[in-house]
Design brief:
single chain, alpha/beta, TIM Barrel, nine-stranded mixed beta sheet, globular, S-adenosyl-L-methionine, 4Fe-4S, S-adenosyl-L-methionine binding, rSAM_sf, lyase
Length: 239
Amino acid sequence: MKLPDVSDADGGLVVNETFGPTFQGEGPSTGRYAHFIRLFGCHLSCAWCDSPHTHDTRYDLDAEQRVLSIEDILSWLAADPADLLVITGGEPLLQAHLLGRLLCAIRERALATEIEIETSGTIAPTNMITSAVKRFNVSPKLAHSGLRRHQRIRPTVLRDFAEGGKAIWKFVVQELADLAEIQELADTYGLHPVWIMPEGTDSTTVLARMRMLADPVLARRWRLSTRLHTLLWENDRGR
């Protein structure tokens, strides 16, 4: 599969969608009033990806992307400044240069109180991006993603995030056996705090897996994340 190149878009960021207000559905900010910018493009292709329309050629990718200038995005935010702004994807750090400029402009104009970036942990952020964000929600992919280990686990990048002090580690889990793989990664690369999140794009699956995971996650003294948007709106886009 040939992935679209978003690293040198002319004139702006390649965006899949902007939406909000809604709730942040995952991780430590679950339940917070939030706006989202979903950037287009990803260099990974997880078997269970919940946003394949950002990169998968089975979709009409021309219809799934648009180039927005920094001023376009600032105008969108100015209409309703964000308590929490979440930059997601795809893989947002594929567009690091323009993303850094955008985040600095958002901070200068006070258009978001806090900014989070959701990332796979395979691309290191620039200093400009790191200085502008409150938190990186880093989600290293496990073996059930269907990716080879060298594709999904980049030791230098993981250590950089861990040492930077702004990362939480959110692992997508399908089965209890996945917890042993997470433990190995956490011990090897010093990843903490660890958040466990059930994989699933419907409320029945998410609830069943949360119940399966609850006691084992407690026993390891890790944290458990729901997928609030899925519980509320199933797999609706833009929620």
